[in-house]
Every structure is written in structure tokens, then in C-alpha cells.
Design a protein that fits this description.
Layout (H helix, E strand, L loop, with lengths): L14 E9 L7 H19 L3 E3 L19 H15 L4 E10 L2 E10 L2 E7 L23 E4 L2 E7 L8 H7 L4 E6 L7 H16 L2 E6 L1 E4 L2 E4 L3 E3 L5 E4 L6 E9 L3 E3 L10 H19 L4 E5 L4 H14 L4 E5 L7 H14 L2 E4 L3 H10 L1 H4 L6 H22 L1 E5 L3 H6 L12 E2 L6 H14 L5 H5 L19 H13 L4 H5 L5 H13 L1 H4 L4 E2 L24
Helix pairs in contact: 1-2, 5-6, 5-12, 6-7, 6-12, 14-16
């Protein structure tokens, strides 16, 4: 007789399932390399965390977004070779990863489940997004059915990114019997994104009485930054586990599955401040753009102003001081304060620092232009020449030493055209492209709380391009506290001019700013890309025609 005794019943133990969220950085287009990253991460997850399931991000096999690489004739062949490689490896844990899948002649954004060398299932994303930076309907058809698989006795459902933001896919997956849903993501960062994700996951998990594992990509891809922040919400809508944002790694979560899959609660990472979060996004964006594109180093113009000061700090934090070169290019209007402050920051951060006066070059140009300019008044032409000479110097250093030129313009300036084509806009990557000026000040103060690298005078003195005597930005623009509010309403929230005026702003300020934004679209089309941190950055997010007859108004 068993120890349980006749007439007694043994209690049924909950099924244990250990899931590892592989919050990793993949290189777009590097299918062989990404395949090896999946294999290596799975082996580590098995050895270090005794994983039963390893969940990778959306389109991990190709990187995200692959854009028109998906149209390459060899894409299907390369994906097939990668899938065969992953099967041959016969990895012990089940692996769930994103890949483009062609079915009956149509291409889908899919997820593949492989366990012990066998393809257990394929899921086809049901809701390809087509808004903001997303244009998946250009490439992908829409799937139609849920996928629920038995993994170690647990019914596990699969969804991909946007599926969880729409009604239908998660509901159908839960109705099909899933107790645990693995949601694969390539969700790009913006300032409020993690809070919106959490509110969504809390509601979706609770409404459907199902536990959700949300695994997100991390790293930079051109202007996009993916922040990770992978999470687990239990069937009651409680946050049970969260990976830190912007940190690649393997994050294990153990589940006890009976009537529900209950995650074993973990301590949660501290909530970062907005400034710390944005600063991390800038660092990751710069680091990955420079490294993934094979640049040895970066070079930037250090003017003594706050934008270049913040850009320099981000560059050093992203790449290290030995890969950063700062160049001061003074002119007769450059103040002694700018010279002193630029040198002080460069010395504090320990970067290579050079000073090249543009005065003799400017004089040579003006001598050459003396005849055609005869009888004309000095205007912005002479100011722009100064900026363009600096651009030529930086691009020459770039060519000679293989350095990427970082431009230093912020979103406020780019919006209203307060920049010079082929001058301060000349370069390969604009670190602050999506950072409004008021946030530049906040980020600078934040960075100084980590260690003081930006001189206080740089933060407190009135901003100036120093292209003319006693010049101040606010001589030709509304104050940045007003300007940034107007720009937020017009650029990021699509308010009309009249709707902005109705918010209490001066009509003359609103119409002037709106006109400047509209007429400077041609400049922005020629600007370098930069890190996207808001819901509506210039670039993929906001696509307005350069040539148009639209008039500001209602």
C-alpha cells in the first residue's frame, strides 16, 4: 500500500515552468549573426537559469525593422537556412523567436517555436501596425488564427507585439485555453511608452484572466531606440517581474501553473526619472549607431553652448573618452566665456580637444565674394558662412580619420529652421534631434548630478549662436518655454494654429512659429537622423510635403 493510504488522495503539485525573457540587441539584416546570438543566448539560459522556455523579441532573426530588406529575393532563402540551423542545434529548452514567414505566397511577421530540433508551431501576427514609425502593411499580410501549444504540460499561447494592443488576438488566445501568453515585441521607446505598456498589460491580463510575458527588444536601430523593459503580468493584472530598461540580458521568471500560471514574484527595478530614462535612450542610440555602422570614433563641434556640451557628455558615456574628439572653431564673435567653458568640459571629460580658428578662412571667402557682394548689406549670408566653414572642417576630419560627425541641433531649432544647411547641420547623426530645448536644460542638470561635467555657466547663460555681435536666440524666437509648448501642440499633437491660440498663446507667436515649421520642411529632409524619444519625431513619424499650398488656420 502506498504511503498515502487507502481512501486518501494525493495533492496535485502545480506544474513548474521556467521562462527566460531574452531581452537582447539584434543587428538588422545579419541573419547568420542573429541566429548565432539566439543559439548562444539559449545555451546560457539553459546553463545559468535552467530554462524550459526562452522567449526572444519580434523579428529577432532579421532584426527590427528590416524595412525593404524584406523585399530582397534571397530573404526567404536566408530565413530557411537559419531555421534549419536552429533545428539542427537541437536546443534543450523550447525557443520562441520572431521571423518573417512566407505562407502560400504571402509574407507574414511571424513567431516560430522550436523544441528539441522540432518546429512545434508557427504563429502569424494578426495586426501589423501602420502608423507613426510603423509601415508593416507595406510588407506583411495579416494572420487569422491563435496558436496555443502544450509546453511541459502548460497551455502556452503566442502573440506578436501589436496583437496585444488590439482587441481580438489575446482574447482569442485565452479563449483557446492558454494559461500563459508569450508576447514578442519590438516596441520602440518614447518618453511615456513604458507607462502606456504597463497600463495596457495590466488591463489585458486581468480582463482575460491570463498571465502575459512581454519580451521586448533592446538597442538602437537608426533613429529608433528599443528600451527593453520586458515584463510579466499575472492573471489578476499585477506586475510580477520587470527587466530594467536599456539593459540587454537574460531575465528568468518561474511559474507555478495549475488553474492559472502564477509567476513567482520578484523585486522590481526602481522607477527611473524622466531625465535618466531619456539620457539612457540617447546613450544607447549613439552607441549602437556608431558601433553597428563600424565607425572608429566621433567628432563634434564644441561651441561652449549647452547643446554641444550635452552632446559631448552623451558621446563620452556611449563610447568612452578615447573615441571622442571635440573641436572648438572660434570666430571674432565667440565670447571668452564660450572658449573657457568648452575647454573646461573637454578637459573634464578627457577627450581630444582642438581649437581651429575660422577667421582666416572666413576672410578668404569674403575676399573672393567681394565683387558679387558689392553694394549689399551684411545679413544672414555672412552668419551662415561661419557655420558652413565649421561644417567643412568637421567633415574634413571625418574623412581623414574615419570619424562620424555628430551634429548638435535640438528639436526646437530643427522645427523652426534655426540651423544652417551644410553648416551646423552637416554630419551623420544628430544626438538631440528629437530633444526640445527645455528638455536639453533638464538633461544637462541631470547629467551633472551623476558627475559634474557641464559648466554651470553653460546652463545658466542665455543661449546664443554667436554668429553676430551680442546675438541671443530669443532675439529671433519666442522664449523656449513658450516655443516648446507651441511646437508640442503643432508638431506632436497636430493642433491647428487657431486651436493653439485658443490654449492662451499670443496669435502672433503661434502664426510665426507655425509658418517657420512649415517653410523649413526642406531643411529637415536634408538633416541627419537622430535618436527618437517622443511620440512624434521628425523623420519617419512626420511626413509633410515640402511643396504645398496649405495655409495655417483652423
Amino acid at each position: 500500500m502506498s504511503a498515502a493510504g487507502a481512501g486518501s488522495s494525493e495533492s496535485v503539485q502545480p506544474q513548474k515552468l521556467r521562462v527566460v525573457m531574452a531581452q537582447l540587441d539584434f543587428l538588422v539584416g545579419d541573419i547568420p549573426g542573429n541566429t548565432e546570438r539566439i543559439i548562444e543566448a539559449t545555451q546560457r539560459a539553459c546553463e545559468q537559469h535552467r530554462a524550459d522556455v526562452v522567449v526572444f523579441p519580434e523579428l529577432a532573426l532579421t532584426g527590427y525593422p528590416p524595412e525593404d530588406l524584406l523585399l530582397r529575393p534571397s530573404m526567404d532563402l536566408r530565413v530557411a537556412e537559419a531555421l534549419a540551423r536552429l533545428q539542427q542545434e537541437a536546443l534543450t529548452p523550447a525557443i520562441v523567436f520572431g521571423a518573417p514567414l512566407r505562407v502560400d505566397g504571402l509574407l507574414y511577421n511571424g513567431a516560430v517555436v522550436i523544441e528539441a530540433g522540432e518546429v512545434r508551431g508557427r504563429y502569424l501576427k494578426r495586426c501589423p501596425p501602420n502608423y507613426q514609425v510603423f509601415d508593416e502593411k507595406r510588407y506583411f499580410a495579416s494572420g487569422a488564427r491563435p496558436l496555443v501549444l502544450d509546453i511541459k504540460g502548460v497551455p502556452v499561447g503566442i502573440t506578436v507585439c501589436e496583437d496585444i494592443w488590439k482587441d481580438g488576438p489575446l482574447e482569442d488566445t485565452a479563449a483557446a485555453g492558454a494559461k500563459l501568453v508569450l508576447n514578442l515585441n519590438a516596441s520602440p521607446y518614447d518618453i511615456d511608452k513604458q507607462a502606456r505598456r504597463k497600463a495596457l498589460l495590466e488591463r489585458k491580463a486581468a480582463d482575460n484572466r491570463v498571465t502575459v510575458v512581454y519580451t521586448n527588444l533592446v538597442g538602437g536601430q537608426d533613429e529608433l531606440v528599443f528600451d527593453g523593459g520586458s515584463m510579466v503580468y499575472d492573471h489578476s493584472g499585477a506586475l510580477a517581474a520587470e527587466a530594467p530598461q536599456f539593459e540587454a540580458g537574460l531575465y528568468p521568471v518561474e511559474f507555478l501553473c495549475e488553474h492559472h500560471c502564477q509567476p513567482v514574484a520578484q523585486s522590481l527595478p526602481p522607477e527611473p526619472s524622466l531625465e535618466a530614462n531619456v539620457y539612457s535612450a540617447l546613450v544607447v542610440g549613439v552607441r549602437d549607431y556608431v558601433n553597428k555602422n563600424g565607425f572608429k570614433s566621433v567628432v563634434l563641434g564644441l561651441s561652449g553652448g549647452i547643446d554641444s556640451a550635452l552632446t559631448l557628455a552623451v558621446a563620452v558615456d556611449a563610447l568612452g573618452k578615447d573615441r571622442v574628439r571635440a573641436v572648438m572653431m572660434p570666430f571674432r564673435y565667440t565670447s571668452s566665456a564660450s572658449l573657457e567653458d568648452a575647454e573646461a568640459e573637454a578637459r573634464t571629460l578627457g577627450v581630444q580637444y582642438d581649437v581651429f580658428s575660422i577667421e582666416p578662412m572666413y576672410d578668404s571667402f569674403m575676399t573672393a565674394l567681394a565683387e558679387p557682394f558689392a553694394g549689399t548689406k551684411t545679413d544672414t549670408t555672412e552668419e551662415n558662412l561661419q557655420a558652413r566653414l565649421r561644417g567643412v572642417l568637421l567633415m574634413s576630419l571625418s574623412n581623414k580619420f574615419g570619424s562620424l560627425v555628430l551634429t548638435t541641433g535640438n528639436k526646437s531649432e530643427l522645427a523652426v529652421g534655426y540651423s544652417t544647411l551644410y553648416g551646423d547641420m552637416a554630419g551623420g547623426f544628430d544626438v538631440l534631434k528629437d530633444v526640445p530645448k527645455t528638455l536639453v536644460f533638464r538633461l544637462s542638470r541631470y547629467r551633472n548630478t551623476v558627475s559634474p561635467v557641464i559648466p554651470e555657466r553653460v546652463i545658466t547663460r542665455p543661449p546664443s549662436a554667436e554668429l553676430a555681435p551680442d546675438q541671443k536666440d530669443e532675439d529671433s524666437l519666442p522664449g523656449y518655454d513658450i516655443l516648446d509648448q507651441i511646437l508640442n501642440l503643432y508638431v506632436e499633437r497636430d493642433f491647428s494654429a487657431e486651436a493653439i491660440v485658443a490654449q492662451g498663446f499670443k496669435p502672433e507667436d503661434v502664426h510665426r512659429v507655425v509658418r517657420l515649421v512649415d517653410v523649413n520642411e526642406y531643411k529637415r529632409r536634408q538633416a541627419p537622423i537622430g535618436v527618437r524619444i517622443t511620440e512624434r519625431g521628425f523623420g519617419k513619424d512626420r511626413r509633410y510635403p515640402i511643396t504645398n499650398g496649405w495655409k495655417p488656420g483652423n
